[in-house]
Design a protein that fits this description.
Length: 114
């Protein structure tokens, strides 16, 4: 059973920055990254890594968010800059195993408000 431990959410003013972290219990995966779910909306992809190192970003966050990884720590980070109120959501870490099974973290709240 893969475990994912997230940290780094919180309240920030518009234009501010936050960094999310997700530590996994395994370094073997097909893809790993971040999704988010805003109230009343479906969960959506934010940014992901493939095991080969390719990255994929939602259009809405390109140029503002950066996903990175520390292989030695089995940890993925999401640096979020120039945050907007519409970024407010619960952010979930996701790991897709080699067998295409999806594992999810517990979620961390990000609120962008003045």
């Amino acid at each position: 059973q893969v475990q994912l431990v997230e940290s780094g959410g919180g309240l920030v003013q518009p234009g501010g920055s936050l960094r999310l972290s997700c530590a996994a219990s395994t370094g073997i995966f097909r893809a790993m990254g971040w999704y988010r779910q805003a109230p009343g909306k479906q969960r959506e992809l934010v940014a992901t890594f493939t095991s080969g190192g390719r990255t994929n970003y939602a259009d809405s966050v390109k140029g503002r968010f950066t996903i990175s990884r520390d292989n030695a720590k089995n940890t993925v980070y999401l640096q979020m800059n120039s945050l907007k109120p519409e970024d407010t959501a619960v952010f979930y870490c996701n790991l897709q195993s080699l067998g295409y099974h999806n594992y999810w973290g517990q979620g961390t709240q990000v609120t962008v408000s003045s």
